[in-house]
Design brief:
Shape: elongated
Length: about 750
């Protein structure tokens, strides 16, 4: 146009820029803006259109630069300009700057509109700063700004995701009261929220309502129900809804297939996942990043990251570009496999490809680095701030957990206060992490303060909270302390489930307080909560550790009479109880009964039987069971080997005892102090036999001496019997008592 000396009028030029912006043709838009700038000065509309375009195309820095140029050239931004930049900042996780810009708008006399507030409210919910979101909602009320369907939908979706379903439903009621017609996005938010609560009947009713009103049928609504079913493991129902979509002439997209494939993989149904993958390809859908992520996550669960990396490289060779989520999954998988160099390589590749870390990727990196325990918590935390990323609740949970594991409660509490001051609402994971850290440190008063704060925030304790606190109370060994904590949690609206009562019964049984445990069982049954196998196992264990085997077997019989099936843990507890008491005939009968029920014994059961027979001198039977154990691929514990070694040593068969020690080490079991005590005493005993060949005597004593030195090098303290054997065997006549005293004094000092 310039070549023909025709100067376009500015509105026409702005219209052209706007057209390119709406079409996503940013390069043409930039060319148009640059060409136009030769013969005309851009106005407010030009700048605003360009800023909006940059923000939509992830060019936030260019948008901010354009904003500065606009102000320098004397153009004051309007509400559209500000709203565009606020959207760009929120999309980049720079919520604090967006909020500051909202304040600047007010100072410049530009009134924020419902779009500005809606964007910030949505960003606040996503960042977990729920109080901030509700504060912005209140500001809208005060300013008299209209609430349209977009604002209401944003609030409904955010409240559901924040765990406030009642408030979300109330908001939907207000929307209807104001005669605002909900759109398909509103319905999708409602459906998704109800699916999160497990209320699928209501969710499907809403779906029918959309279909019945001939409203715009949206694939997102179906996706919400399908995702809800998948998360609950109800895969058949999820597929049923997908088939229903097809009947409504709505074709499932690749994202729905990705959710289903991932769900089938998580359920261990590999064939179902692959069938869906093949179906997806038949209908002509291309593999995308979500499908790749489903396959990578599946391989990650089975610690097969080498295969995952090969799959990704194959897909990349076909032109698929990985996104931040894909890289994050790969990095997480390598950290799980303790391959930190591979994980860091992934992070470096992200940087080379200019893929920005989001807060999730950084959380994975933080978690992986802290798991290695090679990095300072503070330096890792400072890294996220230097990158300009706003830490979310998951970041704070990771950092607080790291400090608690290092018993640095001062810094853990500092972060706790910091997250609240930033408007990030702690969740149940935050509370449980801090409760665990404070409980382990014996900070009872601080734990109680935390529980009070939890109540004020409207967060209910769960089974994990209950277990952490009861475990802490076990240290007191007082029934009243345990009950008091249980009752306090019940007042905080802890759901009294079977699992909660089982935890309480287990706590009492571990202390041998079976009467208290039985009274809890009665209370549980009064509430209509039936005991299960776990409940009876806890009671049986309580009776066994209290040496009340008759009551243990009476409870076992009661369990069978009530139609409950014992499991391997039931037999493990009973067989250990019998083995400790030396009742091996009854143990063998029970072992046979277990096999008849089709329950395969585990390593722990074999350990109990080998030890039990060995302790009563039934060497033949203990060796027989030991051989069966090895044949089935189980490796005995060091204590089980010690029983067998002791059996041979007592019979003077030190060659076989030595072979067993060598075998246990070959199988990856290290000898302990007792192993050395048994062998040293055994070699000393055989070396002191009368009429023993001198050469054998020297050989046996050399072996005893070698083991004694090895024991000392490993830092083990010999028992008194070992010291007696060594001093009796090696001291000169008349010096044995002095030698034993000297050895005892030496090891006493070493122990100190």
């Amino acid at each position: 146009m310039r070549n023909h000396d025709i100067v376009p009028i500015l509105p026409l030029w702005n219209g052209l820029i706007h057209h390119f912006n709406a079409s996503g043709l940013i390069s043409q838009e930039n060319d148009c803006a640059e060409n136009g700038s030769f013969q005309m000065q851009p106005n407010l509309i030009t700048y605003t259109t360009l800023i909006s375009s940059y923000c939509k195309q992830q060019g936030l820095e260019e948008a901010l630069s354009m904003y500065q140029e606009m102000v320098t050239n004397g153009f004051l931004p309007d509400v559209v300009t500000y709203s565009s930049i606020i959207t760009g900042l929120c999309n980049h996780g720079r919520q604090a700057e967006a909020k500051m810009l909202l304040g600047e708008m007010k100072n410049m006399g530009v009134n924020p509109n419902h779009v500005s507030y809606s964007t910030l409210i949505n960003a606040s919910f996503k960042a977990g700063t729920i109080m901030e979101a509700l504060s912005l909602q209140n500001q809208m009320f005060v300013r008299g700004l209209p609430f349209d369907v977009v604002v209401y939908t944003t609030l409904i979706d955010g409240l559901f995701k924040a765990g406030k379903p009642k408030d979300a439903e109330d908001m939907f009621g207000i929307l209807l009261d104001h005669n605002i017609v909900p759109n398909f996005i509103t319905y999708s938010a409602l459906i998704d929220g109800r699916c999160r609560l497990g209320d699928f009947g209501s969710a499907e009713y809403l779906l029918k309502e959309i279909e019945g009103k001939n409203a715009v049928q949206n694939i997102v609504a179906y996706s919400s129900i399908i995702n809800g079913y998948v998360k609950r493991g109800m895969l058949d129902e999820a597929v049923r809804v997908m088939r229903r979509m097809v009947k409504q002439n709505i074709m499932p997209n690749v994202f729905i297939y990705a959710a289903l494939i991932d769900g089938y993989f998580k359920a261990g149904k590999q064939e179902g996942a692959l069938a869906l993958y093949n179906e997806m390809k038949i209908v002509g859908l291309e593999v995308n990043n979500f499908i790749i992520d489903a396959f990578v996550n599946n391989l990650k669960r089975f610690r097969r990251m080498k295969e995952a990396q090969a799959l990704v490289e194959s897909m990349m060779s076909r032109g698929l570009l990985l996104d931040c989520v894909n890289y994050t999954s790969l990095m997480d998988g390598f950290f799980i496999e303790h391959k930190e160099s591979a994980a860091f390589s992934i992070a470096q590749e992200m940087s080379k490809r200019n893929i920005s870390f989001d807060v999730v990727a950084f959380n994975v990196l933080i978690n992986g680095m802290l798991r290695l325990q090679k990095y300072e918590v503070k330096s890792v935390y400072d890294g996220i701030r230097e990158l300009g990323l706003a830490p979310d609740v998951a970041t704070y949970n990771t950092m607080i957990n790291a400090y608690c594991k290092r018993r640095d409660l001062e810094n853990a509490l500092r972060l706790w206060n910091e997250m609240k001051s930033r408007g990030i609402l702690p969740n149940l994971i935050t509370f449980n992490t801090l409760v665990g850290g404070l409980s382990a440190a014996g900070e009872t008063e601080k734990v109680l303060d935390l529980l009070n704060e939890m109540t004020l925030m409207g967060i209910r304790p769960n089974l994990t909270t209950h277990r952490i606190l009861l475990k802490s109370c076990l240290k007191s060994r007082r029934a009243d302390t345990i009950l008091k904590m249980h009752e306090q949690l019940a007042k905080m609206e802890l759901k009294l489930s079977q699992a909660v009562y089982n935890t309480l019964i287990t706590a009492f049984c571990r202390l041998g307080m079976t009467r208290k445990a039985t009274s809890v069982l009665k209370e549980m049954e009064k509430r209509g909560i039936l005991p299960d196998t776990f409940t009876y196992n806890a009671l049986i264990h309580g009776y066994c550790i209290s040496s009340h085997l008759k009551r243990a077997f009476a409870t076992y019989s009661q369990m069978l009479n009530e139609g409950l099936s014992p499991n391997v843990a039931t037999y493990n507890i009973l067989l250990r109880g019998l083995s400790v008491c030396g009742l091996m005939k009854r143990a063998d009968e029970l072992f046979g009964e277990m096999k008849e029920r089709g329950i395969d014994p585990n390593a722990s059961i074999y350990d109990a039987l080998v030890s039990g027979h060995g302790k009563i001198g039934n060497k033949k039977e203990s060796i027989k069971i030991y051989c069966e154990m090895i044949t089935k691929g189980f490796v005995p514990q060091t204590g089980t080997y010690n029983v067998l070694i002791s059996d041979f040593a007592n019979a003077g068969k030190m060659g076989q005892a030595r072979e067993l020690m060598n075998e246990m080490q070959l199988r990856g079991k290290s000898p302990n102090s007792s192993t050395y005590d048994i062998l040293i005493c055994g070699w000393c005993k055989v070396s002191n036999q009368p009429d023993l060949d001198r050469g054998l005597k020297v050989s046996y004593r050399t072996e005893a001496k070698r083991l004694f030195i090895e024991m000392n090098e490993k830092g083990f303290i010999p028992c008194e019997n070992t010291l007696f054997c060594i001093s009796s065997t090696f001291a000169k006549p008349g010096k044995k008592v002095d030698a034993r005293k000297l050895l005892k004094e030496l090891y006493k000092r070493k122990n100190i």
